[in-house]
Amino acid sequence: MRQSAQKTGSLRMGWAEVLTTARMRAIEAAAMASGAVSGAELMERAGAAVAGAIRLRWPRPGRALVLCGPGNNGGDGYVVARHLAQAGWRLRVLGMDNTPGPDAALMKQRWAAIGAIAPLTLDQLRRKPADLCVDAIFGTGLTRAPKGEIAAILAHLGQDRATELVAVDCPSGLCLDSGGFLGRPREAATDELRARLTVAFDSPKPGHLLERGPDCCGELVIADIGLRRWREAAVAPMIGVAPSFDIPDSRRPAHGTAALDKARAGGGHKFTHGHALVLAGGFGHGGAARLAARAALRAGAGLVTLGPPRAALIEHSGPPDALMRRGVDDADALAALLADARISAVVLGPGCGVERAAALLDPLLAAERPCVLDADAVTALAARGPGGLHPACVLTPHQGEFARVFPDLAAKLAETSPHGPFYSRIDAAREAAARSGATLLLKGPDTVIAAPDGQLRIHSAFDVPWLATAGAGDVLSGIIAGLLARGLAPLDAAATGALLHAAAARRFGPGLIADDLPDMLPAVLRDLGA
Ligand SMILES: NC(=O)C1=CN([C@@H]2O[C@H](COP(=O)(O)OP(=O)(O)OC[C@H]3O[C@@H](n4cnc5c(N)ncnc54)[C@H](OP(=O)(O)O)[C@@H]3O)[C@@H](O)[C@H]2O)[C@@H](O)CC1
Ligand SMILES: Nc1ncnc2c1ncn2[C@@H]1O[C@H](COP(=O)(O)OP(=O)(O)O)[C@@H](O)[C@H]1O
Ligand SMILES: [K+]
C-alpha cells in the first residue's frame, strides 16, 4: 500500500473566490444598503490600500502622477493622491471636469482642498516626467472601448516603459469579466498597458486571471476593504474559486482541496485508493499514455493499469514496475474489463489514435465510469458531437481541440467587440459543459474548469510558461485520473489536478520536460501538507 495515501494531512493551498463585476457591484450595494458602511468609507479604504501598497514597494517618496477618470475609479485616485501627498510624495493630479457620483465627488473635493487638478489630456500627461503613474481612469465600470483623448492617453501609457505604472483595480481598458481589452484584438499587442502593480478590491475578478489580464496587471494585490460579511452572505453562488496563483497561503481555508483529504482519509488497502486504467494506442505510440499512467500513480491512485492493444504490449515492458499492463484490443475487450467495478477511473485519448479512441468511447461511456477524455478522444468526439456525455467525464481540450468540438463557441471566443463584457473563456467553458453534460477543462495558462451544473474553477498559471511542452497535457490527464480514481468529484479532480500540475512545473523550473512532471508530485504534495 502506498504510504502517502495513508496520511490524513490537510492540503493548505488557499483558494480565492472570484467575483464577476456585476457580483462585486451587488456586494458593494448590499454593504452600503445595510447602513454599516458608506460608499465614501469604502472608497477611502480602497484608496488607502492602494497608497499603502505603493509605499510598501517604493518607500522613498518621489514624483507621482495620478490620472483620475470620470467615475468611482477616479474617486479612488483622488484618495490615493491625498495619502501619497501626506506621505511626502510630490503629486500631479489630472482629472476630468465631469460631475462624478457623490462619493467620487467628495474625494475630488477633499483632494482639491490640498492640491490642484489639471485636465486629463495627453498634453498635460507629457508635460512633466514622473517616477510613478497611478492609473485610476476606469475600473469595473468600463462599458465600452475608450475613444478620443482617453484612448490617446492609454496608448501613450502603453508605450511608456520608463514610468512605473500602478493600476487601481485594473489597467484601464481591461474588461474585468474576460481579460480582454475592449475594442482591441484578443491576442497580445505591443502597446497594451502593463502595470507593475495592480491593487484590486475584496476579490479577484475573472479579468485579473484570464487572457491578457495577468500579463498586464503585473503584481496583483487584493486589498480587503471590509466586504467579507456581504460576500459570504450573497445567496447566488460565486463564480468559483481560483488558487492564489503563486504561493500556497496557509492562512486561508482550504475548501478547494479539502476533497483530497477526504479521499485519502481512513487508510484502507490499495483498491481503497482506486484503480486507474489508461488506454494506450498502437505500437510506437505509447509514450503519451505512459506519461499519463505514471502521473496517475504519482497522484496517488492505488493501482494503475496501462491498456494498449495486445500487439503493442511489448512496447511497455520498461519501468515503472508498479504499473500493470493489460491488452485491450477493442470495444468488447474494454467492456469486459470495465465489468470490474474496482476500475474507478479511465483515461482515453493520449496517443490513442482517433479511430481507436472513437471505437472505445461507446463502451467507456456506457460503463458510466469517471473518465478523462483527452487528445484523440476529444477529436473523436468532434465527429460524433459532444452530446451524451455524463458529469463524471472530464473533457480536457486545449484551444485547438475545443474549436474542433465546439466551433461556434470558439468563434465567439475569438471575437472582439467595442462593448463589454467580452464573451469570456468562462462563458465558453460553461456553455460547453452544459451542452456536453461533462465536466470541461479548457487548457491554457488560464485554465478554466466548468461542471455541467454551472460550477466553475479558474486556475491561472502564467508564471510557468515552460509548462507548454510536449506531453504536459498527457501528464495532466493522468493526474486528474489518479484523483478521480481516489474518489474526488470530477470538478475537484480537474481543478486540483490543474493546480498540482502547475505546482510540479513551478517546483522543477525552466528546462522541464513532461517526463519530469510526475516525479515532482510527491514533493508538491508534501509541500502542500498532503
Ligand atoms: N462602488 C463603490 O463604492 C466602490 C467602488 N470602487 C471603485 O469604483 C470603481 C467602479 O466605479 P464605477 O462603477 O463608477 O466605474 P469606473 O470604473 O470608475 O468607470 C465608470 C465611469 O466611466 C465612464 N465610462 C465607461 N466606459 C467609458 C469609456 N469607454 N469612455 C469614457 N467613459 C467611460 C462611465 O460613464 P458612462 O458609461 O455612464 O457614460 C462612468 O462615468 C471600481 O473599479 C473601484 O475602483 C472602490 O472605491 C470601492 C468602493
Ligand atoms: N504558457 C503556458 N503557461 C502555463 N501552462 C501552460 C501554458 N501553455 C500550456 N500550458 C499548460 O500545459 C499543458 C499543455 O497541454 P497540451 O496542450 O495538451 O499539450 P500536449 O498535447 O503536448 O500534452 C496544459 O495543461 C496547459 O494548461
Ligand atoms: K484603473
Automatic annotation (TrEMBL):
Its EC number is 4.2.1.136, 5.1.99.6. AMP binds at residues 443-447, 473. K(+) binds at residues 73, 135, 172. Its cofactor is K(+); Mg(2+). (6S)-NADPHX binds at residues 72-76, 139-145, 169, 288, 351, 398, 474. GO terms for biological process: metabolite repair; nicotinamide nucleotide metabolic process. Pfam families: Carb_kinase, YjeF_N. Binds 1 potassium ion per subunit. Keywords: ATP-binding, Isomerase, Kinase, Lyase, Metal-binding, Multifunctional enzyme, NAD, NADP, Nucleotide-binding, Potassium, Transferase. GO terms for molecular function: ADP-dependent NAD(P)H-hydrate dehydratase activity; ATP binding; kinase activity; metal ion binding; NAD(P)HX epimerase activity. It catalyses: (6R)-NADHX = (6S)-NADHX; (6S)-NADPHX + ADP = AMP + phosphate + NADPH + H(+); (6S)-NADHX + ADP = AMP + phosphate + NADH + H(+); (6R)-NADPHX = (6S)-NADPHX. The keyword NAD applies. Residues 253-528 form the YjeF C-terminal domain. InterPro entries: Carbohydrate_kinase_pred_CS (IPR017953), CARKD (IPR000631), Nnr (IPR030677), Ribokinase-like (IPR029056), YjeF_N_dom (IPR004443), YjeF_N_dom_sf (IPR036652). CDD domains: YXKO-related. The keyword NAD applies. Residues 24-233 form the YjeF N-terminal domain. PROSITE patterns: YJEF_C_2, YJEF_C_3, YJEF_N. In the N-terminal section; belongs to the NnrE/AIBP family. Belongs to the NnrE/AIBP family. Homotetramer. Catalyzes the epimerization of the S- and R-forms of NAD(P)HX, a damaged form of NAD(P)H that is a result of enzymatic or heat-dependent hydration. This is a prerequisite for the S-specific NAD(P)H-hydrate dehydratase to allow the repair of both epimers of NAD(P)HX. HAMAP family: NADHX_dehydratase, NADHX_epimerase. This is Bifunctional NAD(P)H-hydrate repair enzyme. It comes from Paracoccus solventivorans. The gene is nnrE.
